[in-house]
Amino acid sequence: MLIDTHCHLDAAEFDADRPEVAAHALRAGVTAIVIPAVERANFGVVRDLARRTAGGAYALGIHPLYVERAGEGDLQALREAVQQALDDPRFVAIGEIGLDFFVPEIAAGAPRERQEHFYAAQLALAAEFGLPVLLHVRKSQDILLKHLRRHGRIGGIAHAFNGSAQQAQAFVDLGFALGMGGAMTYERALQIRRHATEVALEHLVLETDAPDIPPAWLHPPDRRNRPGELARIADTLATLRGLTPEQVARVTSANALRVLPRLAGVVGLTPA
Question: What SS3 class is residue 183?
Fold first, then answer.
């Protein structure tokens, strides 16, 4: 069993062949796919797509790259969507939320303050409803951690993690798993590969971030990442750690179910 803990299956890149992409993932052994929202406009989209997808699950949140076009009404809409989703077995987390200080235009001043405002509000919502979070982490680890510590152990997944060893341990101490995906498959990704080998396997989960972060073996003209690539990503992690792919699949799937407890009810669900 493999679990893709972060896949934007609703992205326009999949409009032409989305059912085939999902079927390919299932044949490759991917039994659950978590589809995070990024803004108010796709709350319903990810919900409906998860229900149409075998093993599909979804998260609801406002991505830091989308907060510039969001308002307080979007936070209220998120609260209402979360309340309505609590009885939906396919709803598993608040996400994708977080902070992005990699993009210069939003890394300082008012745009950065706006990011932090939306992040803090969504963390508070997660804490209120006892839900884990899917965190967007780009050059923002310490500020993310500062806000998290105000809420205790919300837990969840630090998606596409690429911080220091000390920051990795800080997330783990707060109940997070670290997401390992396509970036790990590049030999030059030395820091990510160190995390892949040195962080205890019990704190790692697998992800694709499809259609983004394509693994090393995808080449033009179609470098689009797909959830079915997760099997080879798992093989890479197994090779780096000197384990079998079966061991990696078993432990990372157990980790995903631990940090996203509601996901246990999703594994194996057929389309509605």
Answer: helix
Instruction: Indicate the helix (H) or strand (E) that contains 78.
Output: helix 72-85
- Which pair of structure tokens corresponds to residue 118? 């939306």
pTM for this structure?
Answer: 0.97
Count of positions (residues) in the chain: 272
pLDDT in tens, 51-99: 999 999 999 999 999 999 999 999 999 999 999 999 999 999 999 999 9
How many Å apart are CA 38 and CA 36, to the nearest integer?
A: 7
Q: Which tens digits make up the pLDDT trace of 92-141?
A: 999 999 999 999 999 999 999 999 999 999 999 999 999 999 999 999 99
Percentages (nearest 5) of helix, strand, coil residues in the chain: 50, 15, 35
**Buried residues in 200-216 as b, exposed as e (16+ CB within 10 A):** ebebbbbbbbbbbbbbe
What is the distance of C-alpha 32 from the center of its chain? Answer: 13
Q: How far apart are CA 262 and CA 219, in angstroms?
A: 36
Strands (E), 69-188: 91-100, 133-138, 156-159, 176-180
E strand segments, the chain: 2-4, 30-36, 56-60, 91-100, 133-138, 156-159, 176-180, 204-206
Stated as kind and residue range, the H or E segment containing 260 is none
Residue 56's SS3 state is: strand
Only one residue has tokens 């596409």, namely: 160
First and final C-alpha spacing in the chain: 21
